[in-house]
Amino acid sequence: MMCMMGAFAIVRLNPLGLLLFPGNLVVGLALLIGGLALWAQRSFSLAVATGAALLTMVGGLLTFAKVKGFELPGFPLIWLVVGLYLEMRLIFHFQHLRRQELAQRRSDSEASKAKLVAGPDSEDKP
Fold this sequence. Notes:
- This protein has about 130 residues and is mostly helical.
- It has one domain (about 1-115).
- The chain is built from four helices and two strands.
- Strand 1 (about 10-15) and strand 2 (about 15-20) form a beta hairpin.
- The protein is rod-shaped and about 75 Å long.
């Protein structure tokens, strides 16, 4: 979704054309890098994607204020909402990953506890 919104920051659909303003390029590139960082699933993915969402929000506000160099397509406050939505999705995604990790640790802990309770001889017998 971040990569798609990055493309929408640069491409205007009605009438079809490119918006190659410096602010648009920054927002589009940030969203593309944020999406690729999420895809790579590295330790820094949350920070990069959060930065991209924040840049999207700031870009929407600067477009709304008619700052020179920012001309995001559509209504400018939509980009503020897009940034907030992306941030909310990031929080939900990383919270889900954290819960999966904790559940895996809990099941591993329960399995090792069951082995200890059963005793060392239980591993040798089928």
